[in-house]
Structure of SMI1/KNR4 family protein:
Amino acid sequence: MEIASTYGDVVICEYLLLCGGRSLRSYAEGGMGRLLEDSPSVPHRVLPSPGGALLWGNTIEGDQLFLVDQGGGRWTVSAFRRNWHDWLDTDLEFGEWLPRMLAGEIETDWMPEWPAPPYELELVE
């Protein structure tokens, strides 16, 4: 995920956290990744488990964001939506999902209505 290595941990509009390259592993290996693997609502193992999904971020509502391997080098965005207690799959890769979600071009009833760009970014130390 190029954005993770470029920006590090970033919060967008005080709502959406994108884990940076330094924290991706600890986030997945820490309590959250293990808890999610044990949830009946999450249909995948979490990396570093073999064949696992990449846990790459969350919302302030506790929704957990993943990239799921579709084969052939294609990874699509999926989410455990905490308030819905369900799993949402998309057919969009991160580079397509993020800008379309921020622009309100895709169904995001579980995301806020985003302000017009430029978006407020906060680097997390």
